Amino acid sequence: MRRSSASVATVFFCVLCSVFCVLSAQAGSWPQFRGTLNLSGVSTERLDAPLRVLWTYAAGESVESSAAIAGDVAYVGSMSGELHAIGLRDGKARWKYRAVSADRGIGESSPAVAGGLVYIGDLAGVLHAVNAATGKAAWTFKTGGEIKSSPVVAGGTVLIGSYDGHLYGLDAKSGAQRWKLMTENYVHATPTVVNGVAYFGGCDEIFHGVRITDGREVFRMPAGAYTAASAVINAGVAYFGTFDNDVVAIELASRRVKWRYKDDARQFPFYSSAAFFNGTIVIGGRDKLVHGIDAATGRSRWTMATRARVESSPLISGTTAWIGSNDGRLYAVNVTTGRKLWEWEAGGPVSASPAAANGVLVIGTQDGQVFGLGR
């Protein structure tokens, strides 16, 4: 039977919506590090500079973890060893979950929220699953090294990297180990999930692709350098920064390097994870710059200077990139031109990455503060 033109149009519209939801965090939600499974860093939220401080929350110690947002609650870890659930509207504590002893906290691992649970790793090497409503422990899983990678939940499996050199696939409900993949060095980056495969660059200088269903490695090629940054994948190309002071683009189908971007005048590593928007790669550098790179050619489109290292990863809303700097400021930058639109003094260094949902941008600082900013 032939479909009517209206039916075909409806199907096409649904496909487009599905693709858009994968590539952009949906309004009202920022459920994991970088917002989406492909780590796009792109939100459907409309955030226009300038923003004002709606609330301030004291987390006790340094916040290097980036927030996840679900159900009008922001979840963020701190070096005090606590996972904090903070009301998105009022900035008040909903609950606190004590992850580890006081001498080992939660570092850069950022929460992921799925199926009523919040997942986060700590520097003692433990992945925690916590009831999102009550803050009570659901289960824990111990790895053999500290966790700085952020958890990702896909297909009923929670993925987590560890400094013991493994990427783990665990049952998201029970925490039972389904598989683990051994690499040759620390797994710092957060995996990017596309078409059932988790991709990540390793401290072993290899870019890996692992099938989520069984943990089989289906992609492997030299990255050319040690990397701690997570990759953003768009249209079959992975983009990430390295400690060889460059940003690399890898074509997954052909398994070849499409280009390498390097500023010969300023040789510094890229620790920030990239965002992709409208043909531009936006990424922070330890050279104190935010870089806009042409995704097709690898040529510089623009740079914007800050006053210190940029280890924060950008969030893109509309045509604006929001990104922190260790100079203690949050910046708003036009993605097309690189023009600085606004800067705000947060106090302590901002190495965490912004998260946004329901009109509120959430960012933490190394002096232990979490801020909600909006209009």
Radius of gyration: 19 Å
CATH class: Mainly Beta
CATH superfamily caption: YVTN repeat-like/Quinoprotein amine dehydrogenase
Quickly count the helices. Answer: 1
- Quote the beta fraction: 35-45%
Q: Provide the CATH topology.
A: Methylamine Dehydrogenase, Chain H
Question: Major beta sheet, specifics?
Answer: 5 strands, antiparallel
Mean pLDDT comes to 92
Number of domains: 1
- Looking at the overall shape, the CATH architecture is 7 Propeller
C-alpha geometry:
globular
**Could you say which structural class the secondary elements and strand pairing correspond to?**
mainly beta
Low-confidence stretches: 1-22
The strand count comes to 34
Distance between the termini: 52 Å
Strand order of the largest sheet: 1-4-5-6-7
The share of residues in helices is: under 10%
Briefly say what this structure is.
The protein has 375 residues and is mostly beta strands. It has one helix at residues 5-23, and strands spanning 29-30, 42-43, 52-58, 68-70, 73-77, 82-87, 93-98, 112-114, 117-121, 126-131, 137-142, 152-154, 157-161, 166-171, 177-182, 192-194, 197-201, 206-211, 217-222, 232-234, 237-241, 247-251, 256-261, 275-277, 280-284, 289-294, 300-305, 315-317, 320-324, 329-334, 340-345, 355-357, 360-364, 369-374. Strands 1-4-5-6-7 form a five-stranded antiparallel sheet, with no helix packed on it.
